[in-house]
Amino acid sequence: MLLYQFCFIAFTCVAFCREVTFPPVSGVQHALGYAPDSTPNLSLDLSTILFSGLATYANLPYVHCLAGDDHPIEKYDIAIIGAPFDTGVTARPGARFGPGGIRQGSRRIAAQFSWSVYTGRNYFQEWAKVVDCGDAPLTVLDNTIALKQLDKTHRVISGRKANATDYAVPRIITLGGDHTTTLSALRSTYDHWGAVSVIHFDSHIDTWDPAVLGGGISHYAGVNHGTFLHIAHEEGLLLNTSLHAGIRAPVSNPKYDLQHDRACGFHIVRARDLDKLGMQGIIEKLKHHVAGTKVYISVDIDVLDPAFAPATGTAEVGGWTTRELLTILDGLSGMEVIGADVVEVAPIYDNPGETTVLAAAEVCTILTLTLP
């Protein structure tokens, strides 16, 4: 009998110890994983917990921005859209999964936990309503049709009335996808803002003449991730105050390619210029060159060294660190940035620590902050 009583008491104690007691809810900060207005209990709606449900960038609200005119659509100021396209690459494919990878890398980010330790500000909760519009519906079988679909996606999403009264139309941050997708974004920004200065973070110049890179095969092949800036220049989408930053990849013809690049309106800041100028020097150079113009920022993740971003199609050694890139991007705030993208993320080549998608997600956050 005594043995039975002892066992009963021991079992009861163990069962009691396993009961979960939640701390009281703070009026300022809430438990990680719960929405601010939720009560942490076992009957909690799981859709309010981070790392559950459908993945949006930084756990932002999803808006069906591509719905028809007969469908009510809430207003927004900055739209995140994915461009799952990678059939314009000249090396490793896989960037069609970039939008999903970047969203996966952003799942630890949430608006209520985004107060900067550097500035003390939370840009997700200031003037702009930022939403995730999902991915553009792109065919994987025909580049020409896919890019027309992406053109239309940008027209629809950027053509709606913005939420903030100071801006007539919303602006877009695109998650790529290979760099060809930036062409559609520049066409969209031109429709609303006119020609822009592009600050192009990349290890490659991407202004190759289509006749040199792919065009010798067909006109179709000449539209790719290495020629899109040439095409944008031909279409009058760019100002001659544009810049490349982080360039280090070799060119096929040192005289023609670089002369052609200047003819497309670009000035080059090379990767190793950082060693001479420092990060502040790079920031000042970029801001001075585009001063007084509207700016589009395009970040090819291969601007980073493969040690920091291995998951990309055309990796080049000798690049910048993630910290250096984030510092430079942070320093560009205050300009009139009217659109941005982060592209060439191919998650299949990432490591188990998700180094590249984490970097790309943080880059996208900084890009969101640069939009005034």
From TrEMBL:
Family the UniProt entry places it in? Belongs to the arginase family.
* Binding positions for Mn(2+) per the UniProt entry: 179, 202, 204, 206, 300, 302
What would be one Pfam family of this protein? Arginase
Which cofactors are required for activity? Mn(2+)
**PANTHER family this protein is in?**
ARGINASE/AGMATINASE, HYPOTHETICAL ARGINASE FAMILY PROTEIN (EUROFUNG)
Q: Which UniProt keywords apply?
A: Hydrolase, Manganese, Metal-binding, Signal
Protein name as it appears in the record: Arginase
Cite the GO molecular-function annotations of the record.
agmatinase activity; metal ion binding
What binding details are noted for the cofactor?
A: Binds 2 manganese ions per subunit.
